[in-house]
What does this fold into?
Amino acid sequence: MRVAIVIPARFASTRLPAKPLLRETGKYLIEHTYERAARAKCAAQVVVATDDERIYDAVRSFGGRAVMTRADHVSGTDRIAEVAAHLPADVVLNVQGDEPQIEPAALDLLAGLMADPASDMATLAVPIATREAYLDPNVVKLVCDAGGRALYFSRRPIPMVRDGEPDFAARPARFLQHLGVYAYRQSFLLKIAATPPHPLEQAEKLEQLRVLGTGGTIRVGLVEHAHRGIDTPADYADFVRAHRDGGPRRAA
It folds into this structure.
């Protein structure tokens, strides 16, 4: 398979303005993410998709490849679809620009899931370890069938344990947190980007429900640890400290 990794990057951010261009480590935040993505063995090419010339120029300055997109995209999926339409790729990975410690091996696992010709998409999940995460609406949960295909994603606790308490230590894990990284078959990406939002997607505010709601298939790969993205100034400060200490910054 020819695999391309596309990293959507916007300048505007409500909680952390100019996020991709933060540079307290000596490298742009987008540069850290780009370098991690490029270390994946599956990646034939890595491209940043942006509508901002400052990000475009920054990526070019460190030797990366960037493509300018339209400014009116409502989601990262739409932005990468515009770029993917012109790439010589069978599979396109969507890696958010604020994931500077994404594991290259996790990206290889994600791409490998697309070897199944019945998979329209693939994504990753990690076992939920705490009740707090299980109940947190900002932590997206998912359930899968016996074949590792996603049945549903929700901000609510799923599966809901009617009697007793959930056992987060049991293996195989029953309680899973979704990680927002995706692989798409190129043709399916273009199709789903042109599909109107589904009522389930609108209710939960989760784009992946457009896929399930219209009959698409999403394979799920499990990893043991997740690295948190950079959403706030505190997140970035933590990342800078971890970078200087030389250690990973994993999600709680």
About this structure: DSSP finds nine helices and nine strands in the chain.
